[in-house]
Specification:
CATH class: Mainly Beta
CATH architecture: Sandwich
Strand order of the largest sheet: 1-2-5
Helix content: under 10%
Order of helices and strands: EEEEEHEEE
CATH superfamily: Immunoglobulins
Distance between the termini: 50 Å
Mean pLDDT: 83
Number of helices: 1
C-alpha cells in the first residue's frame, strides 16, 4: 500500500488584479493514508538546452498561491514576456512528498510586464459638489506594457 500523497490534479492558472498577479489553484488530491500536511508550488523553467526544471515558490499556503507578475520576471524565475507560466504542485504527508502534478505546456496565461504607472491626475473643482479630473498618458515605454 502506497502511503505517500496522491498526485494533485493539474493546477488552474489565472490572472488577477488586471494581470499584475498570477493565481495558481488546485484541488486536494485523493487521500492515501495520511492527511496532507502542506503543498509545494513549483514553476517550471527552461535551462540553456530547453530542458524543463522546477523552481520552488516560497510563501504559498493552502491550495491557492498568488504570485506577483514582477516576481516571475525577476530572480530566480526570470520569465520572459509572453513566456508561458507552467506550474506544478506536490503534496506532503507524514510519509514524505508525493509525485508532482501533471504539467501542461499548452494553454494558460503568459507573462506580462507590470502595467504602466499613471501620472498624477489634475483636479479642478467645478463647484461644491463636482470635480473635474484630467490626466495625461501613462509613464513608460509602449513596448512590453499591459
Amino acid at each position: 500500500m502506497n502511503l505517500q500523497p496522491s498526485v494533485p490534479e493539474k493546477p488552474i492558472v489565472s490572472l488577477a488584479t488586471f494581470g499584475c498577479d498570477v493565481v495558481i489553484e488546485w484541488n486536494e488530491p485523493a487521500a492515501s493514508g495520511f492527511p496532507i500536511l502542506k503543498y509545494m508550488v513549483q514553476i517550471m523553467l527552461k535551462n540553456e538546452k530547453g530542458e524543463l526544471y522546477p523552481q520552488n515558490v516560497e510563501n504559498c499556503e493552502g491550495r491557492t498561491c498568488t504570485i506577483p507578475m514582477k516576481v516571475l520576471r525577476s530572480e530566480p524565475y526570470n520569465l520572459e514576456l509572453e513566456e508561458r507560466i507552467v506550474p506544478r504542485i506536490l503534496a506532503k504527508s507524514f510519509i514524505g512528498w508525493g509525485d508532482p502534478s501533471v504539467i501542461s505546456l499548452k494553454g494558460g496565461p503568459t507573462v506580462y510586464s507590470e502595467p504602466f504607472q499613471m501620472k498624477e491626475p489634475m483636479v479642478n473643482r467645478l463647484n461644491s459638489t463636482a470635480l473635474n479630473l484630467t490626466w495625461d498618458d501613462v509613464i513608460g515605454s509602449p513596448n512590453g506594457g499591459s
